[in-house]
Amino acid sequence: MEVYLDNSATTRSFEDVAQLVTKIMCRDYGNPSSLHNKGMEAEQYVRQAKEIIAKNLKVNEKEIFFTSGGTEADNIALIGSAMANYRAGRHLITTKIEHPAVLQTMRYLEEQGFRVTYLPVDKNGLIHLEDLQNAITKDTILVSIMHTNNEIGALQPIAEAGNLIKKMNPNTIFHVDAVQGFGKFRIYPKRMNIDLLSVSGHKIHGPKGVGFLYINEKIKIKPIVYGGGQQQGMRSGTENVPGIAGIGMAVEKIYGSLEEDIDRLYEIKEHFIKGVEKIDAVKINGLRGRESAPHIVSVSIRGVRSEVVLHALEEKGIYVSAGSACAARKPQTSETLKAIGVEKDLLHSTIRFSFSIFTTIEEIDYTLQTMYDMIPMLRRYARY
Amino acid sequence: MFTAFLIKYAEIGVKGKNRYLFEDALVQQIKYALKRCEGEFKVHKTQGRIYVDALTAFDFDETVDNLKTVFGISGICPVVYVEDEGFEKLCERVVQYIDDVYPDKNKTFKIMARRARKNYPLDSMEINREMGGAVLDAYPEMKVDVHKPDIELNIEVREKIYIYSEMIPGPGGMPIGTAGKAMLLLSGGIDSPVAGYMIAKRGVKIDAVYFHAPPYTSERAKQKVADLAKLVSRYTGPIYLHVINFTDIQLYIYEKCPHEELTIIMRRIMMRIAEQIAKETECLGLITGESIGQVASQTMHSLAATNEVCTMPVYRPLIGFDKQEIVEAAEKINTYETSILPYEDCCTIFVAKHPVTKPNLNMIKKHEKNLEEKLDELIKTALETDELMIVQCDR
């Protein structure tokens, strides 16, 4: 039995998305910038994808820009707004538990002379609005907060933060990295005061190599890629038409049946957590139920190394992710787990399970049974 | 500009009656290395020398890079062949050659003529003199120095005339295949690929064995070892890599023996298994990357304890090397970056906090008695499930 429980890393594509991508690559392969019909046809695919996305976010189509994925969307959002607004101020705010696509970009901006405040989080991975309030100054040009944390599934108070930011300083741009949250929640940037929103295709059963950035038309932002001026000059380069059409279709399918799918995901998650808690000395990191993401469970299992559990599960066809990648010579500790105060002994004993709409109860039961059999055995061979 | 390479070899030259065996092996290895290069080449032995002639257009850097991987080559001289169109024309070509190779003319030189074709109108001495004059006329800033010149310009008169002056150092050693075969214990660390390289350099063909311990070591760790073998195979030719599943043996030792002795006992068993495979595959020795005192399992005492299980010679070419020297050697053969990828190997997963550094052989043997019940069976299974990968470099 193959059980894929690493859906926060990437997801299996919808079959019809894959078919659409193939069709466009082999048949409707025109360049949207070409003047002839073949180009026109390609342009239609891009336009259609934009319409679907804009409709689901309740924003204007002109505000959607396609990128090579979540990382590039985050880079344009951060670097683009910093470069366009540095005269208004040089202060940026983010949280300690962002994805490296945001954290490393912030480090780059620090090198360029910007000052960055990293908001702390509590044991559930949540920022406190007072901290945000205290951090915002008239110099603050951008706040970047992730919607859903990729390691523990913490949900940040995005709407409240948006509201607060605009109240404190109406000129501050609000960026939300929604790579894990989009496709799990209905996110409406205009209602939540979000100016920039990053999304990736392959986390929602779409293709890899494509994502998009919503950019509120009222804000000032500079491109970071220059060239032929495609996408209103914001992101030059021939549009990735197969990918764009693919992400469009994925969005349509995901949001077509969002509520029932998410209800089911929460049921699967709760079922899994209840099962895992039957194992001795395990701890679920972060909140559970509707206060957390429906698809992510972070479990610390005392007395075993996460990589060993990962490879042992792999032998049984179960694919998961280690909370912190580690090896004897070069331990890499997860910033998120450290930030929420996971105790030292458990940092390298933490596993992330992440589900998708394809996950079944049978797969969960098989996984639980495998863990019941395996973990006592692994614990017998403790390491130093 | 260059159309051929003169291959210089050092040690082979001193061999006696079996010298041709070494030369033939070298020609063979050169041909093998050139297969990876763009263009067609002819490799031939002429009057005790090996030449590589380019028959088509070729990439100079790529060709030299690949020739530098052939053990037995001490130097690679890029050669220009010119047709014999009279001495005056030859001088023109030589003047041109100097301009192409040495943009800076502020140098001393000497002409070294050799006349293999005795019907050439000038003899060697005359060529030296006349051509030296022609070069001085063309480049007055150059000076003749017959004792320690910057440039030794060789002119060889054969069917065609060969001009060369530069020598790119080769790796030295002896051609692969002239010295039998040995089994390398390849771990994924920095040392073992270097050890394999060093023994192969003496003409030894290499096979390798890797101990895999899933789920404690990952598929990526195995891939890393295969990648290392591939990097080494650039010098050694195809490597037969045996992957042995070691998990059950390791857990068995963990359960039955004192944990401070775990590493030593584990290594003793690894040596036994490696020797077994080595015997079955007609290897004449084992190779390890050990160096005295580097870690607990490589003290003199530990090495003695490990060595005790083997009847075959164990070659440890790094035995007197410092870590830094090994790192430098690894960088030179391009394995360092792969070696430091952070995947765990089976030597580190169950390491005790304070492993013994002076193991007592009697104690070790006594504790190994605890393994009597199942060990032979486990070793047999491990050998039976040996996964063979044939690794070779394609670039």
- Secondary structure tally: strands of chain A: 13
Tally of discrete structural domains of chain A: 2
Q: What series of H and E elements makes up the topology of chain B?
A: EHEEHEHEHEEEEEHEHEHHEHEHHHHE
Largest sheet of chain B: 9 strands, mixed
What's the number of extended β-strand segments of chain B?
15
Largest interface: A-B, 17 and 19 residues
| Uncertain runs of chain A | 326-330
Q: Which CATH class of the largest domain in chain A?
A: Alpha Beta
Order of helices and strands of chain A: EHHEHEHEHEHEHEEHHEEHEEHHEH
Largest sheet of chain A: 7 strands, mixed
Beta percentage of chain B is 15-25%
Terminal Cα span of chain B: 24 Å
* CATH fold-level topology of the largest domain in chain B: Rossmann fold
The dominant shape of chain A is globular
Structural class based on helices, strands and sheet pairing of chain B? alpha/beta
Under CATH, the homologous superfamily of the largest domain in chain A reads Type I PLP-dependent aspartate aminotransferase-like (Major domain)
Average pLDDT value of chain A?
95
The gyration radius over C-alpha positions of chain A equals: 21 Å
CATH arch. level architecture of the largest domain in chain B: 3-Layer(aba) Sandwich
Please summarize what this structure is:
The complex is a heterodimer of chains A (384) and B (395). With 384 residues, chain A is of the alpha/beta class. Helix content of chain A is 41%, strand content 15%.
